[in-house]
Amino acid sequence: MIGILGAGAFGTALAVALAANGPVTLWGRRIDWRGENPRLPGVTMPGAVTVTQDLDAALACDTILLALPAQALGGFLDEHGARLAGRVLVSTAKGIDLAHLTGPSALIAQAAPDAVVAVLTGPSFAADIARGLPTALTLACADAAAGAALQTRLSTPVLRLYRTTDVTGAELGGALKNVIAIAAGVVIGAGLGDSARAAIITRGFAEMTRLATHLGARPETLTGLSGLGDLTLTCTSAGSRNFRFGCAIGSGSAWDSATTVEGAATARALARMALRDGLDLPIAAMVARLAQGDVSVEKAMDRLLARPLKEE
Which amino acids does the record list as binding NAD(+) (predicted)? Predict the structure, then answer.
């Protein structure tokens, strides 16, 4: 049986999709809804999905998807990581932990060293998955045989998974694109135009590749679904929370501080990593400052445009 920890929009959407393959247990710390998650209006839970607040029920599953926010995952693992021993654990979080400056897979491996750890990532909106719209994702697992078995288990007629052993590249692609999506949103929100957005996407992708390969990723992974594919989706669609957050910054609009924006925390993590490793990540650094209100949109634009001219 498959267990999913995290009953937010994405965890719920995965439960709906994977119910096509058999029973699913969906756990949430606080579930105050029945039959329909208010984050996914119009989507009814299939009968094969058991929605519960009983963590023991979800932890009884042999394959567990961790659909928790990137900045909440570490705390959950500190409390419950020992109980995940021996399982197949699949992270769906897209971010870099601020406390440790590592991706979710490293946190999971440290908490449950004998578990098989995989990453599920790529261009996807929860609403699309929940409604059964065709979606392609990357499944990354360092253990090729385990990854192949998991690919079969988690694929459905409309959810197509492509396999890789490059966990670092897949995970970083999903995390870093959120930062660039904020920058793209700032450009559009400030009325700077689609040409400027294209420049941000292109130069942002260069930053993503530079950091990911520095940390051991294979460059070709970044050109796949988990990198370029996810970047394209989140930088061009208002369905992306990170993009909308950037638009709010660019237009000077209010943003609900209770709404999680993974890219904002990841930008701060990237700024620290750039200083630590001597990397040039100008867009990520500027997004970190914009998200914290440390610089105006006008000054951020001026500083990026004033950088020395160089070869592409």
Answer: 6-11, 126, 241
Q: Is 288 marked as binding a ligand? A: no
From 177, 197, 244, 268, active-site residue: 177
Catalytic-residue membership of 299: no
Nearest to 49 by CA among 83, 11, 22: 22
Q: Would the pTM count as exceeding 0.85?
A: yes
- Known binding residue 6? Answer is yes
Q: Where are the alpha helices (DSSP H) in 51-157?
A: 55-59, 70-80, 104-111, 126-130, 144-154
What are the pLDDT digits (tens) for 198-248? 999 999 999 999 999 999 999 999 999 999 999 999 999 999 999 999 999
- Residue 81 annotated in ligand binding: no
Quote the CA–CA distance of 67 and 258 in Å, as a whole number. 18
Task: State yes or no: 262 annotated in a binding site.
Answer: yes
What domains can you pick out in the chain, each with its CATH number? 2-165 (3.40.50.720), 169-306 (1.10.1040.10)
Q: Which H or E element spans position 32?
A: none
What CA–CA distance (Å, rounded) separates 119 from 92?
6
